Amino acid sequence: MTNLGLVSDRIRWDEKALIRAAAKAGIDLKVIDPKTTYMNTASNAEDLEMKFGEVVIQRCVSYFRGLHITAILENSGLQVINSFDVSLTCGNKLFTTLALSKAGIPAPKTLIAFTDKGVSKALEELGYPAVMKPVVGSWGRLIALIRDKDSAQAIVESRERISNALMQIYYLQEYVKRPPRDIRVLVIGDEAVAASYRYSSEDEWRTNVARGGTSKPCPITSELEEIALKAADAVGNGVLAVDCMESPRGILVHEINSTVEFRGLYSATKVDIPGKIIKYAMEMKKK
Amino acid sequence: MEARTFQSKCPECDAELEIPDDIISGEIVSCPDCGMDYEVKLTEQGEVILTPAEIEGEDWGE
Known about the structure:
The structure holds two protein chains of two kinds. By secondary structure, chain A is α+β, with helices and mostly antiparallel strands. Chain A is built from ten helices and 13 strands. Chain A folds into three domains: 3-81, Rossmann fold, CATH 3.40.50.20; 110-174, 2-Layer Sandwich (Dna Ligase, domain 1), CATH 3.30.1490.20; 177-277, ATP-grasp fold, B domain (D-amino Acid Aminotransferase, Chain A, domain 1), CATH 3.30.470. In chain A, helix 1 (13-24) links the parallel strand 1 and strand 2 (28-32). Chain B has one domain (6-52): Single Sheet (Rubrerythrin, domain 2). Chain B has strands at residues 6-9, 16-19, 28-30, 37-42, 48-52. Chain A binds chain B through residues 8-12, 15-16, 19, 31, 33, 35, 61-65, 136-139, 141, 164, 210, 241, 257-261, and chain B through 24-28, 39, 53-54, 57-62.
């Protein structure tokens, strides 16, 4: 009996597409909403498999919820897409940057500071404009383009007021001179399956689809493919969206997402992404 | 077979909520009048239960 699980705290277009793809492939997909259940840390694999399936696609919209669920499932021997290590690395921009750096993958220059003093010194080195991002967060939330010292100070002061220790980790990045778009490459296992340009909307510099960005198909050149596969490998592989920028010094990888939202990529490329994810999960089971 | 359609009232403002017939449990519907978001649960009897959707957390995303 083939069984897969889908852990999801919100059924969006993407999750619905995965449910349909599984049904089309004749697979028994168990859909679990973690909001209405609890988990026993001492569960054995058999009990968990009954409920979650042997291979679990973890797609919680809440990063920490998903990460902790993955920890429990993996600890009992279930296979989770993506794995705990991959989710941990990709869920934190600093950890991702470190993994990319270790693997020698070109990335924007990134400095880390912990106080207003450190931020101001780091910005002297980076120059203006620069970009400040929270280490955990998504959809472009709280990502700031800093044009001068005064706005840097204002942003740091605002972040000091947010009662979240992670907000006191200041991730500062050079502002890359790029076209008004970035490139998203979807990597599934060892294959770069689709790529799109994401154009920022008017009056917005961030290219996130959640911020009104639009997706257009992007050819997967051999350079892009090589860099995306290496980047996916550097964080541990799985179903990953490798986000890149076209800079004057070539392609730079700035982020890797481990709970990929693929609606934009699908509408731009018409590649059967949900079908490919289900197939990848099934192949994982055979291993 | 007839297509299932669900009609419901917004618990917040009592406006008519049209729920698409291909909806599945866990999806979100928004009230066209007051904008409130609800998570839909379908019971085995085909009843629709609406609960206020979770609001975006600081760790939400990809």
